[in-house]
Records
---
Amino acid sequence: MPTATKMDLRHTQRLFVTANLSQGATVAATEDQAHYLLHVLRLRPGDVLRMFNGRDGEFRATLSSPGKNKAELTVEEQLRPQTPDADLWLCCAPIKKAHFEYMIEKATELGVCEIQPILTQRTQVREINGNRAYGICREAAEQSDRLSVPAVGNPVDLADLIDVFPKDRAMIVCAEWGTAVPVHEAFHAQELKNFKKAAIVTGPEGGFAAEELEALRKAPNAVFVRLGPRILRADTAAIAALTCWQAMNGDWKGAL
């Protein structure tokens, strides 16, 4: 089989693993990963894929010892060193399952490093399946060429989030009216450009209650932004705000 170049590898399967990665190491795929590689993708010995673990960068690997329900992978050369993520959080109220899963998938593709569900007065969905949420983020990271998978926190009350919110991080609250600044004005302001860390905060279906907005206004580094002339669904608002931030202040600037 001809040796694949780095450019050729852009269209090979990527796999997130927890094992340490270094040239010459052997990594055992999980049972689910082995099933996917062998029975869905139908890979054979010597077939190439890419692996990453969020710590050691991305490596080329080959399938070396397939069995009926197991697969071992031989780690070859490093393709990319590990680089820091944009320090961008999404703090979002859980919403209906399909919309929430879509939101965290797209947030992963857009480069967030942490997803923190928040509970508000109007939050109807009070619990999330953390394992499933992390699995969605992992698959989105594999698909989008990321070198890491965002952390997914357990739901916390909005008041608790405000109490412990870091003073060195900008809090960008998506609001529909009131004194919220148009997003392009807010993101171009020097006030936000001084921050290297940011959190996009979005509410539930129906938005934040009035007293919650007042509490958010008193939070350190809170900036209220308005996302255009139309009322956006909660998942759309999160994706729109993340896109604007990455384009104007985040890691899209200067990207190849």
---
Amino acid sequence: MQKNVMTVEGEAALRVELESLKKNDRPNVIAAIAEAREHGDLKENAEYHAAREQQGFIEGRIQDIEAKLSNSQIIDIAKIPQGDRVIFGSKVTIINVETEEQVAYRIVGDDEANVKEGKISYQSPIARALISKEIGDVVVVKTPGGDVEYEIDDVVYSAI
């Protein structure tokens, strides 16, 4: 089984979500089910069915998070000496060679990826092209619109 690679921050976020699901969401849905049962006939009780569905979602998410955490490999980028090479967890600034548009991404695990926050999965086409390259290197990323060339402008090894 392949390890679930994640940053320290990604692990912490999953632990916070797990804690919330177990201490808040699970007890709330159990109470909602109990209340809905008191309303009588369960066959036509929409509140009961909605609460049971929510319970299934919560329990599934708890199992999912626990499985990911039990099979995780945590990489603390802050403990790695600063270098010029793009690695998992690093923040890389790239420049589109054609348009000179600059963008920065942090390379993270699948569960942490969020393009709006500038976090991309290490398995994404851009990250795959960048990993192991160094500042000054030009990489070609295959996109649906054709190949795009990027120059690596900066690489930072920090947690933020």
---
Amino acid sequence: MSEVNGCRLPDDLYYWVDKHVWAKPLEDGTVLVGMTDVAQSLAGKIVVVSLRSLNKTLVRGKSAGTLESGKWVGSIPTPVAGTVIAVNEQLKGKPSIINDDPYGDGWIIRVQPSNWESDQGELVTAEVGVQAYRDKLEADGIHCGG
């Protein structure tokens, strides 16, 4: 786990830095999708999450759902195209899980990707991903936490 400007960034995820979302390929060929620590920090306390329905086909960059916080309402772009095969039902009752654990229990959706090889080429991971995030956070003056 790397930390940049107080923001936690696991080294094993694929990041779409400009959109503050991550993707994690799983052994069964599906991909977990979530928001980064940066995203939840910028949003503030998340109070409502509405996710796309099961079996919905998503285009990369389109909305996987929407969230509302005390200072922001907006869509959550998906970093991977494919079909939604699971949504995080826990978020309906406790959306702040994203604030508490954006890389664990706060995942958003699980997707059966239509072309993971292509999508992963558009994302950054490991040292390259962390450095790309470092550059963006420094350029935008973004800090996480208190």
---
Amino acid sequence: MPQTTNIAPLDLDSINHKLADTPATDIVRWARDQLGDRLILTSSFGAQAAVMLHLVTRVVPDMPILFIDTGFHFQETYAFMHKLAQRLDLNMKVYQSWMSPAHMVAIHGRLWEQGKDGLDKYDRIRKIEPMQRALRELEPKAWFAGLRRTQTDHRAQLRHVELQDHIYKVHPILTWTTKNVHEYLKAHDLPYHPLHDQGYPSIGDWHSTLRVGESDDDRAGRFQGLKQECGIHLPQTEAEDASRFSSGL
């Protein structure tokens, strides 16, 4: 894993106390000013991706935007990515697994039909490995992500700034509600993912994303209900992974 360099260790308890009620844009500015260059933003170009893409690039216009292309995204997702990349003039960095989709299916079968173990292997091949490779090559000091506490059990325990695998992880909209997200999109005339209005509030790969009812949790249609996270936003070291297992994820 990449190591943070040229930066003094941060007092995360003190920082998170100070940032507790700080507006999202100011959290992005804090990260820019305190952590300097080599900042990245990861985006899955999901239902409300335009929020973080707009929020962060208004402060750091040339920030690399990292997209992990599984090869199994909806066609609408690829079109949405290109639309936003052009509109917001994004500095895109696209990473893929070394194993093509056809190669993976030939060797391992349709992993998404093999229960939780199959989904976990799928995520390691198609998402986690290219993500770890991207972090090694880009060597970011900080990684922005649009995680929100209301999304999963793991995310409910997060703070605005965390240390994950030796990289500072910054969550500017961590405390936002769905209403806050909708208000931001409307205020800046930003688009939703085209599948949002078809009953997909959370959008991943086509084979593991289902429509949900109005009363369901936003992520109820992901991973066949077998898990909440793909693994990209979970710790990869044994010490940091303790919280993952304690939460039952």
